[in-house]
Amino acid sequence: MLRTFRLAVGVLSAVAALVTTGAVAGESRVPKPAITIENPGKCVAPVEEMRRNHMDMLKHTRDKTMREGVRGMKTSLNGCIECHASKKTGSVLGSNENFCQSCHAYAAVKLDCWDCHQPKANYKATGTAPADHPGTAGAKP
Amino acid sequence: MSEHHINTEKDSGNGGASRRNFIGAVAAAGGLAAIAPGIHLVQVSQANTPPRPAGEAASKAVRWGMLIDTTKCASGCTDCVKACATENGINETVKDARQGSQWIRKIDIKEVKTGRTHSLPMLCQHCANPPCVDVCPTGASMKRADGIVLVDRHICIGCRYCMMACPYKARSFVHQPLTEQNPEVPRGQGCVESCTFCVHRVDKGQIPACVETCTKEGHNAMLFGDLNDPNSEISRRVAQVTTTQVRADLKLDLGVRYQGI
Question: Considering its fold, how many domains does chain B have in total?
Fold first, then answer.
């Protein structure tokens, strides 16, 4: 009787251990994004609102600034970059630890902003026109 | 630029240096230049306008314009082109030189009959009735309230219809991925782009980079300001001297005017 009880406990604990490890393995299959907030508490809106609405905020600002010429709005893409660029790399892109890329890689949402916008904070383009820049010589008008 | 002028392909060397020095010396001596008998022009340094307050849209009351004095623009001088490239991050090397972005370029023109030559920068003329805006199928090509003609890259599909419509060949298409943009001047593959009058600087109350450099280097061939403000230097100048709109026959009402052609 005692032996049977011991066996049952053993089997149960083994099953429990399996379940536990199974659950852990299940979590690691979908790694959560590693979000590092470099300057916490300074955002233009609460985290919940930013997570849900940042794209609408940016689109609204983009149209106001680009088409109407409104500057200095509360939300701006360059404002995001200045605060959220990684202190290590100075960028919001580069690896899944960088602010924009971490979430967008997790959510599998393509980022188009950076095809044209500069993802590095306080970046100063140092390059000058190449010697064969078409405007510098007597190119055909 | 009438049809009597032909455009000659001429490499911009350093041949105009002595002329530039002469003009610089004249401008420096006394700060008063005689344009024509009876007309004197006080050389005023181009004061920046106050920046537009945050949250305020560009105003219809303003019409930004540029006056280019071709008599002071030396053949071979490309300071404006270089300043533009630095300011706007036009620094990519292209495989085919014909694909390079030209927001501003220097051209040399010659009148066939008399042989008189001019050198001048050609850029987006910021028309009041821009053909590029007329033809754009998506509404990406647009004119801002203050007269600056821009491409909204967010909705540009890169069809290049505007490039064909522009009589001044002022627009370029970006053929390759870019990574070295200036944060204030987004540029990218697959979009058409052109001179923005340095809109990011103008909104801060500064003048375009080409004009700033031309003035700083002592050439004083370019002037930027509000054509609607009767007290601005550019308005006073266009009221005093004969200025030309290139291809005025098209009736596009240009924001850029040339003096001396």
Answer: 1
